[in-house]
Amino acid sequence: MTLVSNDPSWWPFINAAHFASYFVVVSFAGLIYDWVLTFGQEVELIWRQRWSLMTVLYLSVRYLGIIYGVLNILTDVPTIPVTDAVSYIIFLAQDWVSVIVNAMLGVIIITRLHAM
Q1: How remote is the C-alpha of 109 from its chain's centroid?
Q2: Does residue 16 register a pLDDT over 60?
Q3: Of 20, 45, 51, 94, which is most buried with the most CB atoms under 10 A?
Q4: pLDDT over threshold 90, residue 18
Q5: Please, how many CA atoms are within 13 Å of residue 103, restricted to the half-sphere of its CB?
Q6: Cα(77)–Cα(72) distance, integer angstroms
């Protein structure tokens, strides 16, 4: 159950969290802006080529990053209400997306080093 306190000692922390949420929104806007700008090149250079393990890993990392950004918006922006159960599910999803993306990036780096 959510506890609401009117204790003034919490106000600086609440204001700091509210201010930090602006950076979350701006970083997500930058992520989407970059995706929109490079989508045409992605279709031309990635989607129309012969698919390989590296293609799948690249696209997975790219789109899991966007999903991670959406989850970050849902948890860090205080004006978006989520229940405790949904918040826990989002927390688990964020943790697992981080683990999966780090594993995929490790495979990409090892493969690139092996190709050198």
Answers
A1: 20
A2: yes
A3: 94
A4: no
A5: 6
A6: 8
